[in-house]
Each structure stands twice: as C-alpha cells, then as structure tokens.
Amino acid sequence: MVQAAGVRLLVVATVVGIHAQSADVEIVADRLKFPEGPLLVNGMIHWVEYAGNKLMQLKGGKKFALHSEEGCGHNGLQDIPDKKQLVLMCTDSSEVLFLDYSGKVLERYKHDDQGRPFTDGINDAVVAADGGVYVTGSGPWKDNPPIEGTVYYRAPGADAFTEVASRLGFPNGLVVAKGGKELVVSEMNTNRLLKFKIHGDGSLGNAYVFKRFSQLFSEDCAEHSEWLGADGMKTDSKGNIYAAHNMGGRVVKLSPKGELLKTYDVPTKALSNVEIDETNGYLYV
Q1: pTM beyond 0.85
Q2: How many angstroms separate the CA atoms of 240 and 253, rounded?
Q3: Which end of the chain is flanked by fewer CB atoms within 10 Å, N or C?
C-alpha cells in the first residue's frame, strides 16, 4: 500500500515518502542532465537524461550509464519484466527502442505499420498486462504546438506499431487502468487527463475527459499556462493513479474513479515523471 512517507528526488530521483502526512524529501542522485522516466527495475532505480542522451542506473550509490546515443533525446522508460526488456523513448529522433537490461538495443522502430514516420516527439510508454505497448507521440516541443499528438500501439507478437488515437493536445504520460479496460492519457497542453476504452484488439474507443487539473488547481493557471499539465504517470497495486504535475510542483494521487486522494509537494515546479516504490513507501520524481 502506498501511503507516502517520503519523496526521493532524482535530481533524478526525488524520493517522497508515501506514508507520512507531509512528504520528506531525499535526494538520491544529482548533477543530472534533464532527468526523466524514473523506473525501478529489480529494486534498482533507473532513469534517463534527456539532455545527456543517456539511460542511467543507480547501483550501490553509484551512477552507471547503460545506454548512450547522441540525437536520441532519451525520455520515457518502461519495463517488460517477462522479457527482461526496457522500452525507451527517443524524443528528438522520434524512435522507440527495445533494450535488454544491460542496455543493448534489440529492436528499433521509426515508422508505424503504414510506413509513416512517427509523430514528432515520441514521449512516453506503458506496457499492458498482456505485453502490448502503448506510446505517445506528443508533436513538436515548441510554443503553441499544433494539435497533432498521437497514440500508437504494438500488439503482443506484432512487428509494428499502429496508430490508435490522433489529434491530441501534446499527449504525454499514460497508464492502463480499470483492470486493463481503459487507457488514461495526460493531454499536457489542455491540463487534463483523457480516458479511452481499450478494445479486445488493443484499439481505442472515443476519448472522454477523465480529470481536469485546471479545476483541481485553478490557482496555478494564472502563473503558468502552456506547459502546466500532467506529465508522466504510474499506477499502484490498487489502481490509484499518480501523475507528475509539471509546473505545478506536485505529484497528484487520484482514485481509479478520478477522485483526488492526495498531493505530494516537491521542491521544484518542473516535474516530469514519477515512480512508485510500494515496498519501501517512496515516490521517485
């Protein structure tokens, strides 16, 4: 059960405890170059550094680079435990990489199943229980970005990604919810979360608004607008959703129905992603 006693900052990981009424903050790694995508793999925290073009691991208190590739723009990171593989998003080159746990590239995707290049800004991913993989293509990272974000899906055993949603406002983090029946996607530039019904073949139904952060935190809207919104997300064992609220300086905990359960403040406004350590009661940001 995640009750938060502490937050571990990744400066990459800030660790916020999930058991206390107020989060204690511990810095577990610093001097990082735009950390993103904190992820626990076999009990060890991993992350990527967008500006450093690296996938990193913290082992025995020391930082190790598992993968480095100029021009990638490392971003989202997910685990496929059954295959002992990682899914890595390259934002700048708009690619999806599949790696083994040592960091070796096993597969690389640049196009969808129609031969079309991925939308600019491949951003984040989530792995469904059956091994299917959803990824977001946010569109260009610039002021007033066009509404051309996309969600792609690779079915288990498939050799290509298929476009399953389009014309989204900078889609970013995403989680599988409601026992695998729904996909929740953060639409960052509208400061809201969308939900889609997942069909049996992995395709998606129509989009519905799941939660408007602009209503939860209306006081933020006057100060930050364009990049104020939910970024990366994770779910706990009870189906609760934890969303990193970029430019809001908090992690937002929502029930499976979208009810606000708790917020965890962290000492930075720019907050890109979150990882949950339920065993030890921490959030990594």
Answers
A1: yes
A2: 7
A3: N
